[in-house]
Amino acid sequence: MTDTSVNELPDDDPILTTRSAARLLGVAVSTAQQWIESGRIASWKTPGGHRRVRLSAVQKILEGNTPAPETRLWPAAMAPEFQCVQNPTYPAPDDESRRLRALAASGLIESAPEREFDRLTWLATRITQTPMALVSLLTSRRQWFKSRVGLDAVETPREWAFCSHAILNEMPLIVEDAAEDERFKNNPLVTGAPYLRFYAGFPLYDKDDYKLGTLCVLDQVPRKLMSEQIEALRELAAIASEEIKRRGLIT
């Protein structure tokens, strides 16, 4: 966008900084910078060399009215944690390579905490009476928590992630007693802090139906969920997925 075209825009179309655009989009500043530099968000430079955008350009992204760039062009997708690991020691879906590219393009990893997701994890603990709940996202190297209740850690190695198993299927993964489950009984999260025994994870989807992670609840004692609780968690996971899609985070 040239300075002439900027001046021709109406005065009721405010000028935004990169940080302001990122805040409106619900992504990290670095992600907004990538979108701006790639041309996905129309911008121009001030005499001081700072990028500026119009509110209307940001609204087009939120409304999904701009062409999606090729995921392979995104600098984030070149980071090692968004590349498939050869012979992984954890289960991975058949579309893992495409799933990782979608996750990189989403801008969710390392993004700031957001009330929309924090409300969902809080509700999940209340519905199930469990002490812990997470919105967990899976790169090739780690599971990173976009939102968490009752857990101090912000991430764990991917090899430890119960959620790696949860994204293999459409149905939720419910582990009533991890200490009695061959897949998890030797997991460091079971044998050491936080000494997990119960897990229920529900996949989270982007607009192309890639499973980026899960909404999950956890406990330090074995337990079962009632059918009503399972359905409620399924709805919370659907809301989380819709929130991601609504923002146009996933390209």
UniProtKB/TrEMBL annotation:
Keywords in alphabetical order, please.
Answer: DNA-binding
Boundaries of each GAF domain copy?
A: 114-243
What are the boundaries of the signal sequence?
Answer: none
The UniProt entry, under Gene3D superfamilies, shows:
1.10.1660.10, 3.30.450.40
MF terms in GO? DNA binding
Q: Which residues form the Helix-turn-helix domain?
A: 16-65
Stored InterPro entries = DNA-bd_dom_put_sf, GAF, GAF-like_dom_sf, HTH_17, SinI_DNA-bd
Protein name per UniProt: Excisionase family DNA-binding protein
The species is Noviherbaspirillum album
